[in-house]
Every structure is written in C-alpha cells, then in structure tokens.
Amino acid sequence: MAPPAKAITSPVPDAWYPTLAVFMLAIGLVLTASFFIYEATSSKRNRSLAKELTTGGVASVFLGFGSLFLLLSAGVYV
Amino acid sequence: MESFRFCFLMLTIAILASPALSDLVLSKVDRRIYLTSHIVRISSTVKVENAGPEKESKVLLAFPEQQAKNMAYLMATPHEGKGKVKNPVVALPVEAANPKDMPAALTFYSVSLPKGLAEGDSFTFDVLAVFTHALRPIPEQITQADIQLVLYQDSAHYLSPYAVKVQSLSVKLPDSRIESYTKLENTKIHGSEIKYGPYENLPSFSYSPIAVHFESNLPFSVAQELVREIEISHWGNVQVTEHYKLIHGGAQSKGEFSRLDFLARPNVRGASAFRYLVANLPPRAHSVYYRDEIGNISTSHLRGDSKKTELLIEPRYPMFGGWRTAFTIGYGLPLQDFLYESDGKRFLNITFSSPMVELVIDALIVKVVLPEGSSDISVAAPFPVEQWQETKISHLDIDGRPVVVLKKTNVVPEHNQFFQVYYHFSQLSMLREPLMLISGFLFFFVACIVYMHADISISKSSASYLAKQQWEEVQAVIQQVQNIISRCLTTHDNLEASLHDLSRTGNIQACKAARKAADGLLKELSKELKPLLTFLQSSPSAAQVFPKVEELVAKERELQEKVMVKHSTVVDGYEKKLGARDIENRVALQQQKLTALRQEVDDLLELIDEI
C-alpha cells in the first residue's frame, strides 16, 4: 500500500439507480409498445425490416440498462 | 497425574540439558495470564541480556506441547515503556524453530531481535500468545442451575531454555469466586487476581505446575465452521455473507431444560448460557440481515455511528453447554471503502475474520468472489493460510466468477487483520451484464419479428389460405394507396401555405414556383397510383373495397383541381393588384367547396381503414 491507492467507486452513483431504472424502463416500454403497434397495424408486405430492427434494438438497449438499474436499486448487485 | 508426569519429564530434561544453549539470560520476566474470556491470552514482558562474548540476534520461546497445540496466535513486539506515545508497533518476526539437543516435548519459536545483542546488552520485548480450548470445564457436565467451573493449568515458572533471574506471574480471573488454586511459596490473592512470585535465579527449563479452578460464566462461543463469502460488484457494493455453525464450548448441559425457570431467574437458572452475540460491523454497512434455514430471525438490534455498526443478535434459544445453532448474517458495504487501485491493479482490502466479539473459530473459510473477467489474482495475507481457487456461477454469468478461497484453522479475534486480494480487471468487462440483458431483450424482439414474418400455415394450397394471401396483397396495395393520397393531401396543404405566404410577403414568383413543384409531384403521384388501381380492379378479393377506393381517388382528383383553380385565381388577383378583400370574395365559394371535399376525402379514408 506504499503507492497512493485510489478508491474505486461505481461508474454511476448508487443514489441514481432508482431514477435511472424508472426512466430507462419507461422509455424502453414506450418503444416496445410502438414496436408492437407497428407489428400489428402494418400489413405483412410493406413492413420494413430495418424499422422493426431499429425500434427493437433501441428498445432493448433501454430495457436492458433499465432492468440492470432496477436490479441494482433492488439490492441485487450483479 | 498427567501434569506430574510431565513435570518429572521436564526435570529430567532440565538435568540432561543443563549446559546452556547460549549465553543469553533472561534478566526479568513478567507474565500476565488473562482468563477473563474463554480465549486465554498470555502476555509476557521479557528482558533478555547477553552474558557471553558472542553476538546473539535470536531468542527462543518454549511452549509445552499441550499448550502449543492450542496456540492460535503468537506475536512479539518491542516493549514500550509506560506513558510513551504509542507509535504503530512493528512486530518482530517470529518463526517456528527446531534447535538441536532440545527435548521433543517442547515446541520452540524463535524471535528475531531488531539488532544483534553484543556482550552486556539487553533488550525488552512483549510476547502475546493466544490459546483456544485451553480451559477445561470441570465438572464436564452441569445442569441448568449449576454454575460453570473451569480449570486452567500452566507453570508458575517461566518455561525457557535460558536461566531466568527475576520473574513474576499474575493470573487474572473473571470473578473472585475461585474453587481452588495451587498454593506455592510467594502466592498472593487480590480479589480476582492471583500472584505468583517473584522468584529469583531459576535455572533453564524450570517448571512448577499450577492449576486454577474457577467460575466462568462467560460465553464460550465457538464457531465450528464459519464460511465468509465476500462478493465484489463494481456497480458499487461489497456483499459479505457469513454462515455460522456455532456451539457453546463450555461444560455440557445435562438434565432437562426448563424455559420457565430460565425466564423467571435467568441469572441463576441459566448462568452458563449465553443469550446474545455482538458483531462489530464496519461503518456504513447496509442491508443487514440475520436468518437461518427456517427464515428471518427477528431478535436482532442494529445501531450505527460513524466508526462502526453494531449488530446484536440473539439465537433462537439460549445457548447452553454443547448446544448448537446455525445461522447466516449478511451485509452490504460501500465499494469505495474497501476497493482500491494502484499500479493498474485493483485490490480488495478487508478484514479477514469474523466481526463477532470474542469468538473462537475452529475452521474459517473466506471466499472472495471477484467479478467475472478478473485475472492475475494474488493474495497478500498477514499470516499463513491455505488457499485455492474455485469458480462460482451467480447472477448474469457466462463462465462463472473466479473465487479465491482462504482457509485457516483455530482463529481468534487477533486474526481480524486486513488482507488484500489483488487482481486485474478491465473497465469494459463491467458492460458484460448489461450487454447480456440487452441481448436477451433483443432476442425477444427478433423472435417477434421472425414470428410475424414467417409463414407457418401447413397447407399452402387450401382455398382459405390462398384467399388470405390475396387479401393480404390487397391490404398492402390499399395501404400504399392511402399513403399516396395522404401525400397528395400534404401537397395541398403546402399549396395553401404558399398562398398564406403570398398574402404576407407578396412574393408572386415564389408562389408560382411552389405551384409548379406541387404540380409535378401530384402528377408523379397519380402515375404511381395507376398500377395500384389496375391491380385492385383485377383482384377478386378487392371487389368490395374497390368502389370506395375509386371514389376516394375521384374525390381527391376533384379536390386537386379545385385547389389548383383557387391557387391560380388568387395568384391572378395578386398579379392584377386587386385588393385582399376582392380576392377573398372571389375564392369564398371555392373555399366552401374545398372544405366540403376535404371532409369527404377524410371520411372515405377512415371508411377504407375500417374495412
């Protein structure tokens, strides 16, 4: 311990976890809803795969981080 | 009887080994034996003097075998006089030694002095030896109402391979109730303290057995096994989980246990039992829990300040001699208090042993669970430990987390020192868990897309299947038609907007350009519309919806013409420099028709949507 040891903290302050979880999950769920609305309303022939994949991809990024922060705020430190 | 035989043996040895080992002489030895807990601590202050011509740098400490096997901890420090400012003491190195021509019944440790002793020099140091299971309960079995008596045996003379000039011994007991003790010359008793000595000029290996039989109702809490699991999460937590298998290590309880007696007079009917345990957790500990196999145990108290968090737990029943209990406590600690980084390596700096007060641990297993993706793991412990590595599969893991397992037997509170686990960890590895969650969700979305795109009907030639296929095609075409119509409508809106601009700025050229662009666009759109309409006309499934679509297209065309007419009228008006009121009058009728038509088109669009 002779060289100055630097304390390691988490990349995101613990206190933000609940807020982040709520907002990211909300955004993720809205995107999921829009994904399914698109799936259900557009007809099979003129559905664009790119649009489906982008909506799904962005929604899964938000849902993924949202559920991670939900786990962390619930005390399940992964 | 055993001790007498041992004594005889020692005397024989003393005679045989009379030529002294070296020219060292212990000029003064003060020993204090603390029996105030079930952990026996012997603290000795030793002044060593070199009487011979040769330089000496090592001093031997001797312990009889029966003591040595119970020894948990041995530390030597340079002696500091009373009243001095306490500097951080640096322990003198102590190692097991095997000197020649020494009796086999003794275990030796050698203390290295900071500098060699020349002739006539002296050095004073303190030795702290800690023993477990050194108090023998006699009687071995007691009832609930009995008090617990224990026996301690040692020597009144300091057992040493060197001659001792002056020595004294004091034995501190928890209570003044003493059943019996060995009376020698110069034995004094002051309340709960027995003093032997001073004795002068005793030869090497002198031994004089003493036994103290006294009352001790202190908690004999012994953890037969303790598994501590320290799990690091770089998301901000160090989770400690401790699984205890506890036993009351005192006199065995016999006869029946009466809860009523115990509750009525707990100090008499249950003096030997212990009811609670205290754990001093680190400060800022959070999410503390205390449970066993059945579930949560509600009898616990927690209070914390800035220095420590004190947890008081009560087992489910009072612990009598020989009774066992198993429970788990767990707590979370803030990451920044225990995890550090230096030279590109991260290290955990945390205490080794249990936070419980005055607990003997027969077998302690410390598992340090590092995050997935850690490598180059090394451990720095202040005392020798057995160690090996494992992996543990936990939340959101692929190939498991590396676990360093440290094992040590016979652990006392003195072992509660900091140890370090060094490892390499890339910050990017933290993204593993979120990426796993993200890919999970993405997989779900992809599955939905595949399901919606896949054709999973079995009979591809049945009439209903074909009809469905056709209907889907029609639907797609109608959607395209709707798209085109709505684009037409936006173009109309744009034209209206250009008129509005005209009334504001009077720029006729811009307005004309806008009209030209809109004209081109509308023509293109109607071109696009043509093949779709022919398709709808030919398709049998579109029979129902086609008239509506046709009507829609017709209405739209009418609307288009009207808009164009209105646009040219207004532009003409501006060119002829007519007043705004005049222009308005001219287009008023057209405007009404336009609004009506627009309404009809919107209605039709909605109607088609419903079909």
Automatic annotation (TrEMBL), chain A:
Swiss-Prot/TrEMBL GO biological process terms: protein N-linked glycosylation; response to endoplasmic reticulum stress
Subcellular location: Membrane
One GO cellular component term: oligosaccharyltransferase complex
Pfam families the record matches: Ost5 (PF05251)
UniProt topology in membrane: Multi-pass membrane protein
GO MF annotation terms: oligosaccharyltransferase complex binding
Membrane-traversing stretches: 15-38, 58-77
Primary subcellular site in the record, as a coarse category: membrane
Superkingdom, natural source: Eukaryota
UniProt keyword annotations, A-Z: Membrane, Transmembrane, Transmembrane helix
Quaternary structure and interacting proteins, as annotated: Component of the oligosaccharyltransferase (OST) complex.
Family assignment from sequence similarity: Belongs to the OST5 family.
Function: Subunit of the oligosaccharyl transferase (OST) complex that catalyzes the initial transfer of a defined glycan (Glc(3)Man(9)GlcNAc(2) in eukaryotes) from the lipid carrier dolichol-pyrophosphate to an asparagine residue within an Asn-X-Ser/Thr consensus motif in nascent polypeptide chains, the first step in protein N-glycosylation. N-glycosylation occurs cotranslationally and the complex associates with the Sec61 complex at the channel-forming translocon complex that mediates protein translocation across the endoplasmic reticulum (ER). All subunits are required for a maximal enzyme activity.
Name of protein: Dolichyl-diphosphooligosaccharide-protein glycosyltransferase subunit OST5
Species in which this protein is naturally found: Theobroma cacao (Cacao)
From TrEMBL, chain B:
InterPro entries: Ribophorin_I
Record keyword Ubl conjugation present: no
Residue ranges crossing the lipid bilayer per the database entry: 435-454
Subunit structure, as described in the record: Component of the oligosaccharyltransferase (OST) complex.
First and last residue of the signal peptide: 1-22
Naturally occurring in which organism (per UniProt): Gossypium stocksii
Cellular component terms (Gene Ontology): oligosaccharyltransferase complex
Family: Belongs to the OST1 family.
Name the record gives this protein: Dolichyl-diphosphooligosaccharide--protein glycosyltransferase subunit 1
Localization annotation: Endoplasmic reticulum membrane
Segments forming a coiled coil: 580-607
Pathway named in the protein's UniProt entry: Protein modification; protein glycosylation
GO biological process: protein N-linked glycosylation via asparagine
Record carries keyword Transmembrane helix: yes
Keywords: Coiled coil, Endoplasmic reticulum, Membrane, Signal, Transmembrane, Transmembrane helix
Main location: endoplasmic reticulum
Function: Subunit of the oligosaccharyl transferase (OST) complex that catalyzes the initial transfer of a defined glycan (Glc(3)Man(9)GlcNAc(2) in eukaryotes) from the lipid carrier dolichol-pyrophosphate to an asparagine residue within an Asn-X-Ser/Thr consensus motif in nascent polypeptide chains, the first step in protein N-glycosylation. N-glycosylation occurs cotranslationally and the complex associates with the Sec61 complex at the channel-forming translocon complex that mediates protein translocation across the endoplasmic reticulum (ER). All subunits are required for a maximal enzyme activity.
Pfam families assigned: Ribophorin_I
Membrane topology, from the record: Single-pass type I membrane protein
